[in-house]
Amino acid sequence: MQTLAQLRAGQLQGITRLQLVEELTEFPREIFDLADSLEILDLSNNQLSTLPEDLHRLSRLRILFASNNRFEYLPEALGRCANLEMIGFKANQIRTVTAAALPPQTRWLILTDNHIETLPAAMGDLPRLQKLALAGNRLTALPESMANCRNLELVRLSANQLQALPAWLLGLPKLTWLAFAGNPFSHTLVDPHADVATVANVTLHDIKLAEKLGEGASGVIYRGDWLNQAMVAATGSSQIAVKLFKGEVTSDGYPADELDCCLTTGDHPSLIKVVAHISQKDQLGLVMELIPPGFSNLGLPPSLATCTRDTFHADTQFSLDDVTKITLQLADAMAHMHTKQVSHGDVYAHNIMVNQQMNLLFGDFGAASNLRNLSTVERLAMEAIEVRALGCLIEDLLAYVSGSVGPEYYKKLSAIKDECMQLDVTQRPCFAEVKKAIGALLKGK
């Protein structure tokens, strides 16, 4: 992070990335002095409501973030920026998005947690659009023109007022990660604080929270200890992990929907086990078994460069057996979820934990959606979308395997990956078929 004082003193010449958090109410004109080099501009967490009309003078600007400000409309100055492809205006008060505000080369558009009711038909004129986050708005429909956005891969539509799931959306050839919980057409929670018969309902008075273990879009995870001895007896351990949901709306939707989807899914050997839930009026949460020692994240989240695809440490290596074992366990877990009529929405390596034996634990239901109110055709399409996510995961892992090791084995696993990633949604296998194919591959190697 840089300072306004450094900028005004001319100390930032030649930088490619600028981040200013200074309670700004106006765009500092000195930023234009960096026009020859500036590619990434982060003005999030200020008090801005406008951008200058001549923003396009920042001719190298590729990425602009302005979340947590006071914008009431998406600035039309954005649309005139020749190289701008990533735009983030989360948590403003945006009501208006016009065609003029959309650069034609947009790949990444984040408008989560605003007040948007409609989007322009020009959304369909964004052929490069890959990542679109619209959760927590007031949308009642999406423009039909968006059927032309055939490179869309990640879409977040949760916590809106959508009356239906568009048929064209489910048929997009590259759609891989979709979340839509908390809309009128989807599963409606009558009382998110109601008790769930199959899983104990506890309060924070039953738990002693310890250190933070991690944090995601929807909540913070802590290590904890039961203070309630009955729960120690019921769960077989005094030590637990506790996920406390953050607020009313996250980047993926409502916490109550995540809680519902997680509890609806139930137990599976490859899913992080939920032993209780917290449904207080002022706090929702999940109580889970503590992940055993020796488990670590399979991958890292996407970067600005990869946009929608996971990243990995440079020294990452997998064997073909590793990849096959991971795929088999994940396909089985996903088959279980879809049998329970729940989609995950975030099938990524960074949401998977493995140990040295490649035993897998999968979690984070922040982008999950309940499919109960969908038609059979729509549910099958949702499964096909998530099968593509499994294919992307296999592809990512295979990039860290030498193809010269067991070339025939590698070829067969690659063929399964290709089946999962077919552009025709209706031709992809279901998870049960993927599981069968991987099982046969393991037996025949």
Automatic annotation (TrEMBL):
* EC number assigned by the record: 2.7.-.-
Name the SMART domains for this protein: LRR_BAC, LRR_TYP
Q: Does the keyword Nucleotide-binding apply?
A: yes
Which molecular function term from Gene Ontology is one that the record holds? Answer: kinase activity
Q: Does the keyword Ion transport apply?
A: no
Keywords for the protein's UniProt record, in alphabetical order: ATP-binding, Kinase, Leucine-rich repeat, Nucleotide-binding, Repeat, Transferase
Q: Which residues bind ATP?
A: K243
Which domain of life does this protein belong to?
Bacteria
Q: Where is the Protein kinase domain?
A: 207-445
> What is the designated name of this protein?
Leucine-rich repeat-containing protein kinase family protein
Species per Swiss-Prot/TrEMBL record: Shewanella scandinavica
